[in-house]
Predict the 3D structure of the following.
Amino acid sequence: MTRSSMVTSRRRKALRRANVPGLLTMLVLLGLWEILVRFGVTEFQFLPAPSAIARGAERLLRSGDLQGNLLHTLRVTTLGWLAAGLLGISLGLLLGLSNTAWRYSMASIEVMRAIPPVSLVPIALLVFGFSVRMELTIIVFVSAWPVLVNAIAGVRSVRAELVDVSRMLRLSRLAQIRKVILPGAMPSIVVGLRLAMSLSLVLAVVAEMIGNPSGLGHAVIRAQQALQPEDMFAYVLTIGMLGVALNTLLRFVSARVLPSLATGPGDAR
Amino acid sequence: MVAPVASDHAPACGCRNVSVDLDSTEGPRRVLAGVDLDVDDAEFVAVMGRSGSGKTTLLRVLGGLLLPTEDSTVTFHGEPISGPPDGAVFVFQDYAASLLPWRTVERNVMLGLEGKVSKPERHSRVAEALAMVGLAERATDYPWRLSGGMQQRVQLARALAMRPSVFLMDEPFGALDAMTKSSLQDELQRVQERTHATVVFVTHDVDEAVYLSDRIVILEGDPATVTQRIQVDLPRPRDQLATKEMSEFLRIRRRVYDAIVHGDE
């Protein structure tokens, strides 16, 4: 295979993987939106055309506001997610492995995780005031639940036969957890972590809108109050793209981590 | 490969008055009652009985995976045990569920050696065990890629790598086809011959029990006890065709069938 033909075939494969029909539809919809606003078909005073939004975004990028707010939200989301993950996994291991602990705590867990997360924001505001701490606390408290619940389920789903194997091979408790229980629970834990990521972003934005005066959420509200719809939309779209980026990253990482766990005879290799 | 030396007079596995209560929906149910069984060093004992007769329970008690009632005594090379002893290894019936799907064949075989034996020693033992079961070329494959017979061989290799003095096998060849079964039976025989290990083998298959063992023990009743002990004095090494044609083989086989089908007569 010549070098140039390798490059062409790689480009062709990339094109095939890119969602061409999906992208085309999006472009058509954007075009439609632009036309509707330009020709005054829609009467909304504060619904800008995509071109106006693009100009607003460019302005925000040049002033550095977009990056600054993006970075804040990204940092808080990631930090909160990591803390929620660590908390959820360690507690989940404990509750999954200890029947007594599980029996005593499951009812409380079911109640606490049922509380709509957004309704906790005013409480956090009262307790912590307008601060990053308030934002992080909300994120961690709410995002930990899916990780916890999935970790518990994952641990308990490890087959009894494997536990027998680890016992008869006289693995230490630590080795048993590290080599059998944790890998066995991993698929479930990863699901919990991905759910937690979506929650973390949402709660970060909400907390920024209501409590902590920084980040993308706060910027959206400020733009709204200043009657600057282009900026507002630009920020909202940024939030959306951040969510997509984080989710894609997680999906990529979990695909690398999980293949040896998830493959079965059905996967062609 | 030499099995660790045990005390001269103590049996490899011993049960005295062993009773086991298991949880059921109606409360604790006595599954085994007053079982006495001694398995001597290098002896091959087959445990038989009807489905649900407590064979697996007895095996788990011998291997320390299950604790019997307070007045029971379970010993391993003369020492009472309260958990899986060092030197006893199980081979379970459900091979697919007993292998770690996220580890390759060789890392599965290595599982029991990690942290206990040096790295070069680990690798050499794993290679030796895989060679013994004929899976040296599949060392880097994942279990799901292997056939049922091969997966069971991986479990066997894992047990072999531990160099145990006692193999506790729970219908290990029950889910395999006839050809694989007979080849694994012969492999097991060769291993036992070479290592002088003790084997306690639970099976439903009368032919298999008579072919492989030195003694057959039959569990019966509810709760179950040992009702019959049948000595199998057939010459070793045994051959799939020659041994099974001997009149003594057929006589013992008939005896075992009668014992299981017609009960204590």
